[in-house]
Amino acid sequence: MISNSCIPLKVGICGLGTVGFGTLQLLKTNAEEISRRTGCEIHVVHVATRTLDQKKVASVPASGTDPFALVNDPDVDVVIETMGGFEPAFSVIKKALEKGKHVITANKALIAEHGNELFATARANNVTLSFESAVAGGIPIIKALREGLAANKISSLAGIINGTGNFILTEMGANKRQFDDVLAEAQALGYAEADPKFDVEGIDAAHKLTIMASIAFGLPLDFNKTYTEGISKITPEDIIYADELGYKIKHLGIAVLNGTQAEVRVHPTLISKSQLLAHVNGVDNAVLVEGNAVGSTMYTGPGAGADATASAVVADIIDLARTKASGADRPPIAMLGYLEPRSDLTVLPIEDIRSEYYLRILVDDKLGVMAKITSCLQDAGISIEAVIQKERVSQTVSIVILTDTALEADLNKALTSIESLDVVSGKINRIRVASLAK
């Protein structure tokens, strides 16, 4: 039963695209169950969207095209930002916070790159800025890190956090298809934008990883320190060779904390076929978290889409509705991750990380080639764990090497030496190998 003492929570939605309209529909479809669970009714009283469709907003008392009119509407308690991009989204959120309104956003780029300023504004005005929907769609990974695992020291997390990239690699592996071919299909299916750079070059995943690492480790939000590498150089041959070595190639976001040094990186990664993450396929997302008390936990599900992302938006609305029903002004600041970040942490540049490496080298089919390559690796202090030499293609042959653990800076020196050999053709394809908790 709904509490008679709870005044309805009044919501305004800025942006009525996939996520915004999904949120409006979910609040309507599940209104009775949401009210039962919160003890408070939730009313959408204002919508602002660039293209106004009266059929979509027929049940909303106020609607228009100006998001600042929504922010200034005295009836709106909570502003939902689902417009995306940096402007006017940043100005809308900042203005809403300054006016003492709670804000919920699905904008991972804005949080990753401007979150520090926005959280400071929220704290100064005694309101909340919530963002569960900004990372991994319908997977409640923000709540898991911030609340469910709050008793743990998080040592690492690794995730498939971009469904487009995962779909492309899955299709390339299952059907031996080229990257460009699968990307075109992903665009036709609506999984990738016309300009797919954010997805396939790892920028979208890097935004999400920046946010998760900040919550998990206490790092300040600093997107520029997240190493970012895409999947456009991966070939079906790489996937086949990795399989022969016992691995799958996944586009991972990886964050590791060793003492006061953190690694925050997004790149294609070889992971053992025995890993659960290796079997997360298609457009699904998954995040593996290692805590010192709980051990390994994994969270998986749809990482995008109207219903999944709307589910996460509405979860944040429900937090505010429950708080309102309890008579409080807002959830505790500590629960929302507004605490000051740790000042003793540093993010390692990619050259300072240590990893095993997969190398695919195209060489002339001549005697002594392997000895020359081995010599370059040995000079850099790098040992070889496994080698595959494939059949000749015209006058060249592919050599695939799996190295032991090495410093990235040392590997870079070795690759420069190898690529300078007159028997080596073109650039070497290098993929990092990760040993993850199972």
Labels describing this entry:
36% helix; Rossmann fold; Dihydrodipicolinate Reductase, domain 2; Alpha-Beta Plaits; twelve-stranded mixed β-sheet; 27% strand; 14 helices; 438 residues
Describe the SSE topology:
Blueprint: E1 9-14, H1 18-29, H2 31-38, E2 42-48, E3 62-64, H3 67-72, E4 78-81, H4 89-98, E5 102-105, H5 108-124, E6 129-130, H6 141-148, E7 154-160, H7 163-175, H8 179-188, H9 197-200, H10 203-217, E8 227-228, H11 236-244, E9 247-258, E10 261-272, E11 284-291, E12 295-302, H12 306-326, E13 346-347, E14 354-364, H13 369-379, E15 384-393, E16 396-403, E17 406-407, H14 408-419, E18 424-433
Parallel strand pairs: 1-2, 1-4, 2-3, 4-5, 5-6, 8-10, 10-13, 10-18
Antiparallel strand pairs: 7-9, 7-11, 9-10, 11-12, 14-16, 14-17, 14-18, 15-16
3D structure, described in words:
By secondary structure, the protein is of the alpha/beta class. It has three domains: 160 residues, Rossmann fold (3-Layer(aba) Sandwich), CATH 3.40.50; 162 residues, Dihydrodipicolinate Reductase, domain 2 (2-Layer Sandwich), CATH 3.30.360; 83 residues, ACT domain (Alpha-Beta Plaits, 2-Layer Sandwich), CATH 3.30.70.260. Helix content is 36%, strand content 27%. The strands form two sheets. Strands 7, 8, 9, 10, 11, 12, 13, 14, 15, 16, 17 and 18 form a twelve-stranded mixed β-sheet that branches. A six-stranded parallel β-sheet has the order 3-2-1-4-5-6, sandwiched between helices. Strand 5, helix 5 and strand 6 form a beta-alpha-beta unit. Helix 4 runs parallel beside helix 5. The longest helix has 21 residues. The chain is elongated and about 85 Å long. The mean pLDDT is 92.
